[in-house]
Each structure stands twice: as C-alpha cells, then as structure tokens.
Amino acid sequence: MAYLFVGEGREYLLEPGATLETDLGILEVPENVEAGDTVETHLGTAFVARELRGPDLFHHFERTGAPMMPRDIGLVMGHTGVKQGDRVLDAGTGTGVLAASLGRAGADVVTYEQDPEFAEVARENMALGSVANAVEVRTGDVTEHLDELGGEFDLLTLDTEDAPAVVAHASELLSPGGFLAVYSPFVEATSEVVKTAREAGLDGVESLETIQREMDVGDRGTRPSTAGVGHTGYLTFARNPTL
C-alpha cells in the first residue's frame, strides 16, 4: 500500500521500503510504516505518511489522457446519488479517476477501455487506489458487448465519442429508476446525447456546463483568479422510467 508523504509544502507517493532522494535530504521509508507516522530525511526534514483519499487519486494516478476533473466527478456523484452496493457500467475508462471514485463510494463498477495499454494502466491505478476488488477494468468497445451485459445497472456513466450509441440502449441496461451520466467536452456531442436520451424514453434529461472559478485572496482584496481552467465540459443526466 502506497502512502503520501507530506512535508514542506510537498508530497510524494511512496511505498514501504522505498528510498527517495530530494534536495531536502534522502527519505527512507520503513517497511512497517503506517498512516500518521513521521519519517525524517537524513537532513532532518519531517514528512508525515498519509493514506490516499479520493481527491488524491486525480493528482497521483498515472495518466493516459485528460482525466475527469474533481468538479465533474462531484456532479456525477451528487446528481445520481451513487451508493454502496450499486452496480455501475462505465465506458471510456481512461485514467480511471471516475471509476475509482465510484468504487470508493462502495459501488461495484465494470468499466470498458478500448486501448489495451490504457486499460492496463487503469488496472494499476485501481490497485493504487485500493479499489481493485470493486472496479473491473475490461479491454474492449462497450458497444460490442451490450447484448451480453444485460440490465439492472443502477448507473451508466459514459465518456466516449460513441456515447449516443450506448445511450440508445440505456433503458435496457438500467434498472427502473437508474441514472445515466454522460460527459463530453463538446456541445455538439452533448446535443446528440440529449436527442438520443429523449428518443430512448428517458426521464429528466438535463445538461449542465461545468464552470468553476478559483478566488485569489490577498491583502489588497479578493477577486476571481485570472489563471486556471474555468470550463471543463458538459454533463448530461437522465433517468430510466420506473414503469
């Protein structure tokens, strides 16, 4: 199990027994280290071991592309109410931050990634995030497996270019009252998802643009930051009818 070692405004992801050389000294991690332990470099700089939490996954997972931002993940979880024991079908695994976050919430996740190398990295990330037992990463195109997947998923999450092709089958994949959440960086794709969701007979179809502004707080005053990315993408939500 890897830990974050935090000190002097820095953090390093290290496993028990690892050695790290920095300008603050050599950090040798004991084999029996536990969360909360303090480990010093040979120069006396202290680092505290901390367990990985959900937000840490975004920063420390190995990336195979642009991962979904925490703000988007929060909207998915908040709008769908995903909980322990829910069954989730996810497609477009990528780095796997969303799948891991859903797994940490207690859901059982099956996620599809077309690129074999990306899928292998995602499996390693699931192990790092301690959700390998909750998240099954499958290599392949989810559209080629819809017939065998059956229904009764509580949540369907998509971050793929061919999302509309899956949305068209959402009513067959989802349990009554189950939720759909689709992420897209482009408004044209979002429009197609909305159209398909309505044609599929889903309820409560809505799309949200996710925008977040960081605030700069200083001695002279407080104002929105002029740096950073405000817009990330669009999220479309819908729900399978209960009858």
Automatic annotation (TrEMBL):
GO biological process: tRNA methylation
Source species: Halovenus carboxidivorans
UniProt keyword Transferase present: yes
InterPro entries in the record: SAM-dependent_MTases_sf (IPR029063), TRM61_C (IPR049470), tRNA_MeTrfase_Gcd14 (IPR014816)
Tree of life domain: Archaea
Cross-referenced PROSITE patterns: SAM_TRM61
Gene Ontology molecular function, alphabetical: tRNA (adenine(58)-N1)-methyltransferase activity
Transmembrane feature ranges: none
GO cellular component terms, A-Z: tRNA (m1A) methyltransferase complex
Disulfide bond listed as a keyword: no
Domain annotation tRNA (adenine(58)-N(1))-methyltransferase catalytic subunit TRM61 C-terminal: ranges: 71-217
Keywords: Methyltransferase, S-adenosyl-L-methionine, Transferase, tRNA processing
Protein name in the entry: Methyltransferase domain-containing protein
